[in-house]
Design goal:
- By secondary structure, this protein is mainly beta.
- The chain has one domain: Metal Binding Protein, Guanine Nucleotide Exchange Factor, Chain A (Beta Complex), CATH 2.170.150.70.
- It is 5% helix and 39% strand.
- The protein contains 1 helix and 11 strands; from the N terminus they run βββαββββββββ.
- The strands form 3 sheets. Strands 9-10-4-3-11 form a 5-stranded mixed sheet. A 3-stranded antiparallel sheet has the order 1-2-5, with no helix packed on it. The protein has a 3-stranded antiparallel sheet with strand order 6-7-8, with no helix packed on it.
- A hairpin with a 2-residue loop joins strand 9 and strand 10.
- It is globular, with a radius of gyration of 15 Å.
- The termini are far apart.
């Protein structure tokens, strides 16, 4: 059984469609993912058997690869939003770029020992439905 997902970047220049099931959902705390996302972790879905079609903006996609590593990120040249990328092992899809819900919940924190020193006990931090006044 296959599922269909659509996604886009923040400015809407790039849009895509994915046909396939997500196999894993990792929250990566490595320093490279933190730097690229600007957050505590990157939230990446992995699809080992599926296909992706760029619906628009394929010419707006830029790639960055850290030399001599496996670390690579695709992003929109206009707004900088992270975008899916295909590797030998399948697709890696930043969860935040999807416009459709996913059935899989995060399956693991990875590179957890590398997490930021302020990334602890966040469940105890006060939460608001909107930006506080």
């Amino acid at each position: 059984m296959s599922s269909k997902h659509t996604g886009s970047c923040l400015c809407g220049a790039v849009a895509f469609e994915i046909n396939g099931e997500f196999d894993r959902f990792f929250l990566c705390h490595c320093s490279r993912c933190r730097k690229f996302s600007g957050t505590a972790h990157a939230a990446n879905l992995f699809c080992f058997e599926g296909d992706m079609t760029w619906l628009s903006g394929e010419d707006r996609i830029k790639a960055y690869e850290v030399p001599d590593t496996r670390f690579m990120k695709n992003f929109c040249a206009d707004c900088g939003s992270p975008l899916p990328r295909e590797r030998g092992e399948g697709m890696i899809v930043p969860a935040g770029c999807l416009d459709t819900p996913v059935a899989i919940a995060p399956t693991a924190h990875i590179f957890f020992a590398d997490r930021a020193n302020w990334d602890e006990h966040l469940e105890a931090v006060e939460a608001f439905d909107q930006r506080p006044g």
